[in-house]
Known about the structure:
alpha+beta
Amino acid sequence: MWSKVTTATTSGTITTPTPTQTGMVSGCTTFYEAVRGDGCYTIATSYGITLDEFYEWNAAVGDDCSRLWPDYYYCVGI
């Protein structure tokens, strides 16, 4: 159920991993690669953010998490 957290840096700048869905917040510094069976609530609480923050930072997942796709990266820290 758990994947990896990716924080990519190159010369002090953050490189966003791919693939991501459209609408991810700019300025994200920590990313999570979703795996089959993940849920938005579980991801959010695992990284100490609220579900509302997760939805705000990853708008494409919808407000019911129905569009959380495995093997895509999501913002879990800004």
